[in-house]
Amino acid sequence: QVQLVESGGGLVQAGGSLRLSCASSGRLASFERMDWYHQAAGKQRELVAGVTRSGTTNYADSVKGRFTISRDNTQNTVYLQMNSLEPEDTGVYYCHVRKDWGRGIIKDYWGQGTQVTVSS
User: Fold this and answer.
1) What residues contact residue 105 under an 8 Å CB cut-off, 6+ apart?
2) Contact 18, 117 (CB under 8 A)
3) I need a labelling partner for 32 at 20 to 30 A (CA). Which of 2, 8, 51, 56 fits?
């Protein structure tokens, strides 16, 4: 089992910055990929940024140039640096990891989410 705990959300004015953290109970090197998802009120959860075990990153078009995903394997923590925040970035941000346990067993794990509110 893997536990993920997000932190770093809060209220910020448009144009401001926040850094989200996702602390994992498992080693980051054991995960196939690590992602941050955004869910606005009344909408589906959407991928914002991800990084694979090999280090390849990908971003939603809406956050390219503003958000950066990074990881610290020594701390087993994944970060999402969010700059130039916009009111549309408001919502709950979830950390997600995918782990291959071998023998065809692949599982997804989610954190509880952290609220980000961007005021205009």
Assistant:
1) none
2) no
3) 8
